[in-house]
Design brief:
This protein has two domains: about 170 residues, Peroxisomal Thiolase, Chain A, domain 1; about 150 residues, Thiolase/Chalcone synthase (Peroxisomal Thiolase, Chain A, domain 1). The chain is about 30% helix and about 25% strand. The radius of gyration is 19 Å and the shape is globular. The longest helix has 22 residues. A five-stranded mixed sheet has the order 1-7-6-4-5, sandwiched between helices. A four-stranded mixed sheet has the order 8-13-12-11, with helices on both faces. Bound molecules: oxa(dethia)-CoA. The site of oxa(dethia)-CoA has 20 residues, from helix 2, helix 6, helix 7 and strand 12.
């Protein structure tokens, strides 16, 4: 199949902080166990920033690798979009730190806040940007420092999250046999109270006494979020397949947002596909929100599980709630 105006991913890169926090480390911090965490989430360890580190370091490192693998220089980039919920600062944005760190002198840059679906949202914006201007090159980054917004006394959330960054370079190509075929972006704020991070926004003054200290960290009613996540991920996947006259077995690989192995397994069972068709690395990184899909993309390609010409489906769901699906020929 030829895609008349295609947006293709040229390369990817990733970087995570070297510090690893295992389930055994967490056992010493809260009332939990390696067994519980593995059974309920599939996570064994996660990378987290050391106290003196910032996530922009890793966002820049991931971007440099993507540039190198695409054979491009920073000055070739026209736009930088960084999907993140946890930038170093609100101002300057993380995308600006990346722009400056790379020396991407002609690039526009902005951050995008769409929680765990952020990278796929950014990919869809990038798709629109290059389709009619195929010579343009975009750097799309997903980078998170969720450990900084984690309440390390709350066992219901602190076992879940990790830090890291992934990046891709996207460009346009006329009449191509690969690229983005279709996407879905969605949002539903009716249950937003189930997953929140209130402190740091403008509703409250800094360290406002009206806001309890725990509201400066991510709070989640996990069981309720789980139910919605499974339903929505299945819905997006089936809708994208159906409207493109595809069956689940036509897919070569599915890269789901890595929030919980049981959510991924549920989707796999609903699509009735073998384990090999799902890329999973949650055991090593935990939930890295907007960084989870670009990190997985990078690893899937490196491990030879994602190859040129493969039909790829990416699906994500996150706080807000936001959700997204992208169907593409790799
Ligand atoms: O990325 C954005 C979207 N996020 C998600 O999609 C995450 C969705 N939710 C989840 O992944 C799961 O709900 C969790 C992993 C967060 C929790 O798993 P669960 O199977 O839904 O557990 P639960 O919340 O129903 O809790 C079951 C029990 C409770 O004890 P009781 O009330 O049955 O006595 C919890 O207190 O497990 C207890 N529990 C823990 N025990 C040991 C909760 N957290 C822990 C823990 N260690 N870390």
């Amino acid at each position: 199949m030829q895609i008349k105006k295609a947006s293709v991913i040229l390369s990817s890169g990733m970087a995570v902080p070297p510090k690893v926090l295992t389930n055994y480390d967490l056992e010493k911090m809260v009332d939990t166990s390696d067994e519980w965490i593995i059974e309920r989430t599939g996570i064994k360890e996660r990378h987290i920033l050391d106290n003196n580190e910032v996530i922009s370091t890793y966002a820049i490192e991931a971007s440099k690798e993507a540039l190198k693998r695409a054979g491009l220089q920073a000055k070739d980039i026209d736009l930088i979009i960084c999907a993140t919920l946890t930038p170093d600062y609100l101002m300057p944005s993380l995308s600006i730190l990346i722009q400056n760190g790379l020396g991407a002198v002609k690039a526009g840059a902005f951050d995008l806040s769409a929680t765990c679906s952020g990278f796929l949202y950014a990919l869809c914006i990038g798709d629109q940007f290059v389709r009619n201007n195929p010579e343009r090159k975009i750097l799309i980054v997903g980078a998170e420092a969720l450990s900084r917004k984690t309440n390390w006394q709350d066992r219901t959330t602190c076992v879940l999250f990790g830090d890291g960054a992934g990046a891709v370079i996207m460009t346009g190509q006329e009449n191509h046999d690969r690229g983005i075929i279709d996407f879905i972006l969605g949002a539903d704020g009716s249950n937003s109270h189930l997953l929140t991070l209130k402190g740091g926004g403008s509703a409250y003054f800094p360290l406002d006494e009206k806001l309890p200290p725990e509201e400066y960290y991510i709070r989640m009613q996990g069981r309720e979020v789980f139910k919605i996540a499974t339903r929505v991920m299945e819905k997006i996947a089936l809708e994208l397949l159906e409207r493109n006259n595809l069956k689940p077995e036509d897919l070569d690989l599915i890269i789901p947002h890595q929030a919980n192995l049981r959510i991924i397994e549920y989707l796999r069972e609903r699509l009735n596909l073998p384990k090999e068709k799902f890329f999973v690395n949650i055991d090593r990184y935990g939930n890295t929100s907007a960084a989870s899909i670009p990190i997985a993309l990078y690893e899937a390609e490196k491990e030879g599980k994602l190859q040129r010409g493969n039909l790829l489906l990416m699906v994500a769901f996150g706080g807000g709630f936001t959700y997204a699906g992208v169907l593409m020929r790799w």
